[in-house]
Each structure stands twice: as C-alpha cells, then as structure tokens.
Design goal:
three-stranded antiparallel β-sheet, alpha+beta, 303 residues
Length: 303
Amino acid sequence: MEKMEHIIPEEQAGERIDKVLSTLNAEWSRTQVQQWIKDGNVLVNGQKPKTNYKSTVNDQIEITIPEPEELDVVPEEMNLDIYYEDQDVLVVNKPKGMVVHPAAGHGTGTLVNGLMAHCKDLSGINGVMRPGIVHRIDKDTSGLLMVAKNDLAHESLVNQLMKKTVTRKYRAIVHGVIPHDYGTVDAPIARDPKDRQSMTVVDNGKHAVTHFHVLERFKDFTLVECQLETGRTHQIRVHMKYIGYPLAGDPKYGPKKTLDLGGQALHAGVLGFDHPRTGEYLEFEAPLPSYFQELIDNLANNR
C-alpha cells in the first residue's frame, strides 16, 4: 500500500477533510476519499476523523492508499443491448428478468457480469460487486441504465441524480382506472417494519416524489408514464400501491389476483443526463418490450 502525507495550509483551513483530499489527485473522487476515511485509511494528527471533519492549519494528514481490489465477478459474454458508449459512459437496455449486479449467493448471469466481458474499464466507487453501477432498476423491470466507465464519470452522474437533473421516465400498467390525467405522489419511503424484504410509505422514511400522467385507460387497468424526481428502492411500485393503483403483475406490491406476467409491468423507457466530460445533454428512448406491447394491445381489444 502506498502512503502519502499532507499538511493543511492556511487556505485549506476550515474545509471538510474529504474535499481537501479529493483536490490532491485528479484521479481521486470525493466519494472514494470518503470511503477511505470510513475504512480508517486516513489519519488526522494520528487519529481517525469523521468524513465531515473540518481541517485546521498544520493538521498532519496521513493517507494510506489501498491496493485496487481484484474483481471477483466472472465476466460473461452476453448479447447486451447497448444504446450508447464512449470512454466515460455506457447506456444499456436491460431486459426483464436480469439482475443488475451480483449479490451474496448470486454471482452470475447479472448485467455486471455481461458488462465486465464487454469492457474492462468500469468505475470502482461502488466496490467489486457493483463496478460502474450508478443506479439500478429491479430484476423484473426492463429499460435503460447509465453505467460509469471511470470514477470521475461515476461521481458526475451520481451528483446529477442527487440534484434531480437526470430524466427518468417509466411506462407502467396499473390496476384500476385512474380518473385524473396527472398526479404527483410525495410520500416518504423506508423498509417495511413488518417485512424487511419490502419497502413502504412511513413518516420517517426518505423523501420520495413520483410524477405520473395517464396515457390510456382500459376496462380495469390504466397505462401511465411515471417520472422519477427521486430514486428510492421500489419507488414507483410502492407509490402507485400507496394511492390505490398497484402495478399489474407485481408479486410483492400488487393484489393477490393480478396478471401473470412474471413480474411487474414496468419499463424504464427514457433516460437523459449531462455527459460527465462534455456537459452535453444526452437522451435515449427504448421501445416497450414485446410482452408489454402485447399486453396493451390485449387490454385495448377487451375494453
């Protein structure tokens, strides 16, 4: 492991330690530095600081730069549906039924396995099991994902998500006929205290906002477009259930009697963001999967 020392000059006094250190090397992202602090790889005057520690003049900083972890995720050749790719970012259309990244006991067949076979340069901020992954969509949700190919791109895309400037539009089929054309669900989400495998709306949850508008009404269902303002786990599925219109086919949040679709009818069809290097706004649109379009056609025919 490489070690580096830095003494805080007057002009850096009062700044957060993670910000100071991220300016020492152009390849170090602030997120990466924060992880080093949490892991105990940064000492201030011989002591472990908190990530929000504010430096003072003549603070002696010692940084132990960890060796890059070897990825233990096996690359797998896959026929990935790639919409865009350059040296910094990649946009891929994930099929329904594919898990985004490996987890304990589930190390193969994921999008990350396929990405690793496709390109070797993926950001390492999210660790060895989730290289390049900036945001996720559920296993049975299809659609577009942006992937970071280096840490600086990763940090830019994460910041855009935090600032709510990324465009994310989904198509969904929900139970029930929604009478109004537009709506916004502003309800905090957290893990369900009664079921740790599920999320739910709770008073002390994380801020979550979903905008939706009706595209087409059927006999017992509605086709909607949902636009995410925040990106909480299962957000659209939880929010639509909360207002009484759960997603069709959803085994976790839908009604007991729902359509047999092998998972929720949800497709991440539009994705837009500012390119991390050029600042140019890029937007992509993926058509509905065949099963989704066939479902719409069948519902329309049975009105």
